[in-house]
Amino acid sequence: MTAVDAPAVTAPALAATGLVRHFAVSGRRSKAERAAGAGRHRAVHAVDDVSLVVPAGTTLGVVGESGCGKSSLGRLLVGLDRPDRGEIEWAGERAGTHRGQVQAVFQDPASALDPRMTVQDAIGEALPGLRGDELRAAVDELLHRVGLDAELAERLPHQLSGGQQQRVCIARAIASNPALVLLDEAVSSLDASLQAQVVELLLQLQERNHAAYVFISHDLRAVRAVSDRIAVMYLGQIVELAPAERFDLELLHPYSVALRSAEPHLPGDGHRIERIVLQGDPPSPIDPPSGCRFASRCPVAQARCRTEAPALVERTDGHAVRCHFPGSLVPLVLPEEQPA
Amino acid sequence: MTSELTETLASTSLLQPSKRRRIPVVGTIAYAVLAVYVLLAIVGPLLVPYPPNQLNVGPRLAPPGPEFWFGTDALGRDLLSRVVAAIRPALVAAATATAIALVIGTLFGLAAGYWRGAVDGVISRIVDFLFAVPEYLLAILVLAVLGSGLVNAAVAIGIVFIPRFARTVRGSTLEIMSRNYIDAARLSGRGGAWIMSRHLLPNIASPLVVITAINLSTATGAYAALSFLGFGVRPPDADFGSMIADSLQYLTADAWVVVPPAVAFVILILAINLAGDALRDRLDPRSVSR
Questions:
Q1: What is the CATH number of the domain that holds A73?
Q2: Got the DSSP string for B241-264?
Q3: Residue A122 lies in a domain
Q4: What is the rounded CA–CA span in Å between residue A57 and residue A37?
């Protein structure tokens, strides 16, 4: 296997500083955009000044509504896209050529597996150094590790179930012993019972391989189940970065509080959080507002929020917030309803 | 993309039953006829009664009869022998032209779809240019530079047909490049050669076979047209296009002279077309037979 040599000092598996990624927009400006003073050279601010560190063996969850830039960020972090500005380091080395040291599992296994490649060949693709019997043995071992029968090696993707396909993708992702694995909505396409199994599998594999995970999802419950720390994204920026255990009642950014309150309640959670419904849609990521990007929808916004953009400030150990008035939106906690 | 959409729409709509009515026998017959032509192209010259280029083997413009089955032409050459001799250049020209267009067009399309950006810009402009110039004008322009003859005519047709392949391959490549399995291959350190040969080519193979079959018939027609205009094999060698052209001046008095080369050519074109359709129906079940 093409194992990456561990550096002498334990550098974090992933360190990103000041990542910026804008996508140029072509086409005419709409009347409304011109009225709002949109410039001629417009860009979607997919990722704006994102810095994060993921130590080996830990999981960073990234949550946010669709279009907030979490998948764009994920592609930057594993080098499938290049940032306009900013630095990325994988295990202390400047990110660059792919040698299997970073891997990814994507949402749709049907798109992540070549329909004309057998399971054996798909996994073998991540093991460039192996041939023949050696390769066959390595693939068998990987299939076993993700809980699949070795007989599936000769199958084509359409001969597998969705859960089996996703396990093949995971086997391929861990084949090269990566220091970092991007899990972009990796369990979102699976049904609830499969989700739990795959999450369990991912955690077992992490314990064994000590890889760092970046777990991107719109599903807060799944993110809380796997993550050590959670980053909340809004319009291309991280608005709050909190340890997972604080990600319930100790959230400080009004957007995070609203996001948490939108998570469906399940019996056994212990408490219910009154849903906070945000007004309006997120502003366009093309030329976002100059003040706080959340000000237009924030229930507790003040005059300063509309003019001055807040910085991401670390409040307590490992808990950072991008807000002028952190903690001003307090969730309403209700006791759990007892079934009648 | 658009043609795919219309194909999908058509296959789910009223046009569906027409597919059922199509008799698979047609395809089988087409394959068989094509096989006969290929066989004749290889061994035909050994079977014919007279040397095809020999003058005055019989009277001039003799009508079909027991001695000269298809009659003779104005120079007293046996038309049966000449028709059989004309099959080889027709097939060689079509195959060579299509092969040139297939190889170069596929490479262009793959490169444009894989690297995008500036590479795509340059290739797409070249392809647009080739598309914009009328096809026969472009072919004759190439022949004016290269000089006429079988190989040069095939090269000219090949160049003219490059865009047909380049566009299809580029479109399919762009579509496949957006799949996550390409991302996965990159993350594992696989480069362009691997991605093209292991992922892109296998996944575009079936549309490629279909357009190859279709263009084989178009190329046969194009070569006959160029030969008709005098750009084909050099006289006295036989060629469908030039034989039809030569017979035109006798059309009023001895009209049957045009029949043997014209009929043989039409049957060949029909066989290639129908065989191509049958192949497409087998490889691309979504498409509808016309």
A1: 3.40.50.300
A2: HHHHHHHGGGTTT-GGGGHHHHHH
A3: no
A4: 47
CA nearest to A125, candidates A84, A168, A155: A168
Q: How many domains does chain A have?
A: 1
Do the domain assignments include residue A262?
no
* pTM score of the predicted model: 0.83
Domain ranges, residue A202: 14-101+176-252
The verdict on residue A128 lying in a domain is no
In this predicted model, what pLDDT tens digit does every residue of B27-37 receive, in sequence order? 899 999 999 99
CA distance A162 to A310: 43
C-beta separation of A289 from A309 below 8 A:
no
To 5 degrees, how large is the angle CA A311–CA A313–CA A315? 155
Q: Which of A125, A135, A139, A183 to mutate to test the interface with B (most CBs of B within 10 A)?
A: A125
Both tokens of residue A187?
A: 């369990």
At A89, is the secondary structure helix, strand, or coil?
Answer: strand
Q: What single-letter amino acid sits at A7?
A: P
Report the range out of A2-6, A165-169, B282-286 with the highest average pLDDT. Answer: A165-169
Contacts of B196 in chain A (CB under 8 A): none
pLDDT in tens, B100-142: 999 999 999 999 999 999 999 999 999 999 999 999 999 999 9
State how far the Cα of B35 lies from the Cα of B28, in Å rounded to an integer.
Answer: 11
Q: Please give the span between the terminal C-alpha atoms of chain A, in angstroms, as a whole number.
A: 58
Domains in chain B and their CATH numbers? 37-58+67-283 (1.10.3720.10)
pLDDT score at B9: 46
CA distance B202 to A121: 14
Question: Chain B residues contacting A, CB < 8 Å?
Answer: 179-181, 183-190, 198-199, 202-203
A281 lies in some domain: no
